[in-house]
Amino acid sequence: MNKREKASSSVTIRHVAKNAGVSLGTVSRVLNGAGNLDPALRLRVEQVIKQLGYKPNPVAQTLRSRQSRVIGVMLPDIQNPLTAAAVTGLEPVLLRSGYTLFLANTHSDRERERQILEQFKRRQVDGVIAMVANDTDAETRHQLQNLSVPLVLLEREMDVDVDCVLTNQFEGTYRATRYLLGLGHRRICLITVPAVTYSGRERVRGFRTAFTDLGLEGPQDLIYSEGRQHPYGRDAAYSTLTSRSPASAIVCSGGHLAGVIEAVRLLNLQIPRDLSIVTLGDTELAALIEPPVTAIQYDWIATGRCAADLLVTQLSEGRQGERRRIVVPHEFLIRGSCAPFPNGAGSKS
What CATH number has the domain spanning 169-298? Predict the structure, then answer.
């Protein structure tokens, strides 16, 4: 430790108050960003803090204020480009409000999720933004209800009195499926995340509704909703494309798209001649491969930003009235991955 570091570590909040000619409470309010302070007074205190090289002790601040200024953010897969975009949206909002991010990756594992939530409680985070692995699980619901801090669910909806921010997965999947039906496809395959999440349930509902609204019976054997990762997408696509009655089109999650493309290449198929594809969630892969993949584009940055705004509002103003349920809109990006049936595969039957 150099002389300057030693000097700054020995300076206390009392030294700041004495040199600025103010009370300890005034210095504390400046340090905590209180808004109802005279600007000249605030400037004087800030100048003294800079001159003395005062460094607040975060542990002591937490004990005094009972605020950690830390927000716990729990996601199932931070490598997924869509959930990563949500972090890109929420982080600046939290930082501007004076909060630090405690980002945790659960890998969609319930036990790891339980441990992370316990860590959040032990570290006394001020609030939590969570995308749980299973939003139908009673144990998860009980644990969330007992966090005792403001909570916002991201892309999850549970029977819990908390705010949530969602993307319109029903409408997005419905539009994608109706688009393919309009091109003449009937053997359409859906590859999505499990139905134990809001996303999985809403996609299956949108997929089925698109068929029933046209008086058609949806292909129940072509709904794959048991896995979350790239290998599951590859195996599901390979299975349906090598069956006796193969799909002529696939609607898949953004996280499954790489696996679907791998299966297409293993089978030496061409898009869209042999197979039409629509992805639920636009990614760099969807935009950059040839041909670019038609996509339902969800604004995940806006989704993350909205979740952070809701949490910061709770922290500053408390809950106002009933829980808020915000659904972020989407766009339909038509690219070159779809063609009318017949296109060399599948069947109208």
Answer: 3.40.50.2300
**What percent of the chain has a predicted confidence (pLDDT) above 90?**
62
Q: Which residues contact 147 (CB under 8 A, 6 or more apart)?
A: 117, 120, 121, 128
Residues 6+ apart with CB under 8 A from 287: 293, 295, 335
Domain boundaries along the sequence of the chain: 3-65, 70-166+300-328, 169-298
Q: Does the structural domain 70-166+300-328 have CATH classification 3.40.50.2300?
A: yes
Q: Given this model, what pLDDT does residue 345 score?
A: 45
Reference 129, options 148, 102, 108, 96; nearest CA is: 102
Contacts for 5 with CB less than 8 Å, ≥ 6 apart: none
Model-wide pTM > 0.90: no
Pairing of strands 188-191, 223-224: parallel
Distances (CA, A) of 242 to 105, 181, 238, 275: 35, 21, 6, 12
Nearest to 132 by CA among 193, 75, 73, 195: 75
